[in-house]
Amino acid sequence: MEHHEQDNYSAHAERGASSAPARDISEALCERVRQANADKTPLKVVGGDTKAFYGRPVEGETLSLAEHRGITHYDPVELVISVRSGTPLRELEAALDAEGQQLGCEPPHFGQSATVGGMIATGLSGPRRPWAGSVRDFVLGTRVITHEGKHLRFGGEVMKNVAGYDLSRLMVGAQGTLGVVTEVSLKVLPKATETHSLRLEMTLDNALERLAEWGRQPLPLSAAAWHDGALHLRLEGGRSSVAATAERLGGERLEASFWSDLREQRLAFFGDTDSRPLWRLSLPNNTPRLAIDGDTLYDWAGAQRWLRSDAAAETVRDAVARAGGHATCFTPQSEGGAAEPFTPLAPIVAKYHRQLKAQLDPNGIFNPGRLYSEF
Prior knowledge:
Uridine Diphospho-n-acetylenolpyruvylglucosamine Reductase, domain 3, Alpha-Beta Plaits, 3 domains, five-stranded antiparallel β-sheet
């Protein structure tokens, strides 16, 4: 099977999809996990480490998946691809691009060494998320190393209903705290025939009204962000639909690079010269401006908001909770961010988290304390 997978991967490498050979180090990874579990030694699971800032710091022996890489199966006709966790995201995207396809969730990289495993661990999605889906929505199956060092497969390469926990999707956003994801199968999407980005000057209130109105219409929107007096839109789809919508909405042409700069936090709003902590607010998209001191960039048609503010963590979280959302601090505590980056769990939810952790990682060896100090 592995020989077949290597040949499959090489075929894509010949088309320029990869700059490094595929490599399977799963046996070595399993042995490291078995030994760590026996010794009750904490493991710090890492890939490209470009998202190390996201979450609480972990103390433990480094378990690197960076060398566990390669596309193991790709069927462009069925829009399905399977890839090892250490594979750089840019290589996966290059392989898909060669076939006119893409990752629908448009995940951020935050660095050249970003890996597929990091995408799964953090579950972060880009500007297209409200219209196409999140990382979790595209996961079909995974291979995971359990605390006992067993290499198990969950799910498959087709969408289907399952009984009990959907463990593959449970791994998305778990930050490596439930097991070591070694491989993932993903549903992918065809790239749009036509793309057009535009900028419309308008107030925030007007922008939220217009977005709510457009959301009830069959417009080819795939991204919407407001900041500094202007609404930025991306249209994707068939040529006639995109052209007709662009003519109807008007505005001025916007460089397509705006969206990758937003996704990768390269816009001036995210610049290092601003020392105020950066918060990610998740809210109902029609929520009015919140009464929090600071500057805000509105993404996902208002459902995701980036806030620069010196306000206390409790102040930010209370205001967001009252609006029906939650807040995550993207600035590490060492740089002035909140001590707990993720919203504290309600007692009943925390109870289920502890029970799940106890079942999947009873000795607490996988990225202990990464999400919350208690597990």
